[in-house]
Design goal:
single chain; 107 residues; alpha+beta; Histidine-containing Protein, Chain: A; 3-stranded mixed beta sheet; 3 helices; 3 strands; elongated
């Protein structure tokens, strides 16, 4: 092998390794992940503690301090209350409400 081929191979190899180390916008640092996990736990605890909302069917996920609520509630009032409770939790920057109201069973 000549020197030029080795140099090109070295540059390509280095670029490949360094490209794998680059962070993307969808990745979180360890600190952000821990903070989001703490926010999720606080929101779940707040929802369970209230009698206004049935928290059993509500899923809570947090990414970069934005909390997403999904699942089912008995009424629109419960969905609104769940969002209010979530907004009141320390560390929450915004809330995405994907809650759905359960439909009445058909006979």
């Amino acid at each position: 092998m000549n020197v030029r081929t080795l140099l090109v191979a070295g540059i390509i190899g280095t670029a490949t390794v360094m490209g794998g180390c680059a962070a993307t916008r969808t990745q979180e640092s360890a600190g952000e992940y821990a903070s989001d996990a703490a926010i999720t736990a606080k929101v779940k605890a707040a929802l369970v503690a209230t009698k206004d909302v049935s928290a059993l069917d509500i899923n809570v996920e947090t990414f970069r301090r934005t909390v997403q609520l999904s699942g089912f509630v008995d009424s629109q009032a419960q969905a609104t209350r769940a969002v209010e409770i979530t907004r009141g939790v320390d560390g929450v920057q915004s809330v995405r409400n994907d809650l759905r109201v359960k439909s009445a069973p058909t006979r």
